[in-house]
Amino acid sequence: xxxxxxxxxxxxxxxxxxxxxxxxxxxxxxxxxxxxxxxxxxxxxxxxxxxxxxxxxxxxxxxxxxxxxxxxxxxxxxxxxxxxxxxxxxxxxxxxxxxxxxxxxxxxxxxxxxxxxxxxxxxxxxxxxxxxxxxxxxxxxxxxxxxxxxxxxxxxxxxxxxxxxxxxxxxxxxxxxxxxxxxxxxxxxxxxxxxxxxxxxxxxxxxxxxxxxxxxxxxxxxxxxxxxxxxxxxxxxxxx
Amino acid sequence: xxxxxxxxxxxxxxxxxxxxxxxxxxxxxxxxxxxxxxxxxxxxxxxxxxxxxxxxxxxxxxxxxxxxxxxxxxxxxxxxxxxxxxxxxxxxxxxxxxxxxxxxxxxxxxxxxxxxxxxxxxxxxxxxxxxxxxxxxxxxxxxxxxxxxxxxxxxxxxxxxxxxxxxxxxxxxxxxxxxxxxxxxxxxxxxxxxxxxxxxxxxxxxxxxxxxxxxxxxxxxxxxxxxxxxxxxxxxxxxxxxxxxxxxxxxxxxxxxxxxxxxxxxxxxxxxxxxxxxxxxxxxxxxxxxxxxxxxxxxxxxxxxxxxxxxxxxxxxxxxxxxxxxxxxxxxxxxxxxxxxxxxxxxxxxxxxxxxxxxxx
Lengths: 240, 361
Ligand SMILES: Nc1ncnc2c1ncn2[C@@H]1O[C@H](COP(=O)(O)OP(=O)(O)O)[C@@H](O)[C@H]1O
Ligand SMILES: [Mg+2]
Fold this sequence. Notes:
The structure holds two protein chains of two kinds. Chain A is of the alpha/beta class. Chain A has helices spanning 44-51, 74-80, 97-104, 110-123, 125-129, 140-152, 170-185, 197-203, 221-226, 228-235, and strands at residues 4-15, 18-29, 33-37, 56-64, 67-68, 82-85, 158-162, 189-193, 206-211, 214-220. Chain A is built from ten helices and ten strands. In chain A, the strands form two sheets. A six-stranded mixed beta sheet of chain A has the order 6-7-8-3-9-10, with helices on both faces. In chain A, strands 2-1-4-5 form a four-stranded antiparallel beta sheet, covered by helices on one side. The longest helix of chain A has 16 residues, at 170-185. Chain A is globular and about 50 Å long. In chain A, 42% of the residues are buried. Chain B has a single domain (4-360), classed as ABC transporter involved in vitamin B12 uptake, BtuC. In chain B, helix 10 (263-278) packs parallel to helix 12. Chain B starts with a helix and ends with a helix. Bound molecules: adenosine-5'-diphosphate and magnesium ion. Adenosine-5'-diphosphate is lined by residues 15, 18, 20, 38, 40-46 of chain A.
């Protein structure tokens, strides 16, 4: 098995006084896609946010790339090579496409930044056509592309992606998951939260089931997909 | 006939309000707090600057140019060399920034860390305002401080006549162009332009706008949002200090004259917030417009009413005009008067409201 690029050890975390995650132990293997599934409100987003320092950690330890990052603020985790694509509001609506990209790569040397922006435009030619348009005026699919592009600018070591297909038409959703898969093929480690359990687990290597803030399953994605008992119990997709 | 003196002093007053509204708006947009202490920050700048200028004038052996002095508009105008004004300008900025940083780091940040809500933060700014007021009042009136200032620096704080620092630029008989007026307009224009360049032409500006729109997303992309907030407090303190400096130049129209440490900030807070609200609270350039708008409307409407009713003492109540405008703004254009220009709906809403009223009767 690949080495764990991120480790969560005995994590208890939440929002101020509301504990949401309980005794979470989790390893994210380098170069793989880890897919997190679970019912609404189970704590999947909270789990991603905790990895990035956006929640309150009461006890436990988070290790990234052999460094203890438990106490690091989010902007410093970003500099260590972590990227997070939020479920909602994942681009700056009031900034143009170019400004969004410049912000994402603000600490790169200017020539490297220009190079990266060019690369991103090769991957997403649609964005190039809209370079001076405000992100808020673009379609949902285009915004999702920009969100991916923002994440890619710094060439992070790990991508945390929260429900990228939520609210998209099935056809668009398929395209988004294909993009995620392609990102992974370029060598990026990915942690993906996906509400479309089947489609998500099919592109995943590792599958994690979160229920009521606890890890209920942790193993190969194909195995989780095959566990009809878990699916029927927690996901309500057994019949499908 | 246009009363030139009134127009000039109102313009200085308008720039002071514009700068104050700007500072209030910047802090509301970033830290999400209504800083009631903001006008007092400018007064800290004004007092420090007045002190520094007076000390400099006395101890560098600078004589005001009495030969070039004139009584203009009922006001003795004594020109000083430019260095006096430069010192005042710099000291006022430093004073404003220090007072603002103290407020952010010592009072608000610890509260924010503990998750204080909007209301608690607002009350805390009020408390800070009272604290500053007390300090300035002591500076003004405390026996020991007064004596020390007088003996040591030959300075009488209560007699610091701020408007003595205005100067005439172009004179023709009894008509003159006030230097304070030119300076106020120039400073406000330069500041607005610099701010525009900072916000829309630099990476720091992109970071600031991003941190205002979506702080968690900015953090996740490697922006130290807390530092951006600190920078916005510095900018806010800077503009407050400059506003304080401009207060020193206001000829005695009555709107700004700081008779004591308490009165100007106590009153101007109403007009400054009115400027910010008229500007839309979330628009930097709206706030500059709002400040000038309030400055002119407040002065001229009161002036007109006073003439109409033949009641000079009406000037004491000029803030009522601002309160009235705030009420109208919140009722008909809660996004600010600037939004009126973009949004035709507001006009429709006013018409509908008027029609509705008529229907009731
Ligand atoms: N910002 C927040 N503040 C307080 N509670 C929150 C916040 N975000 C989520 N929660 C709570 O944490 C729990 C888990 O939410 P979340 O992680 O968003 O679930 P999921 O992503 O699995 O649907 C829910 O009970 C939710 O109400
Ligand atoms: Mg979620």
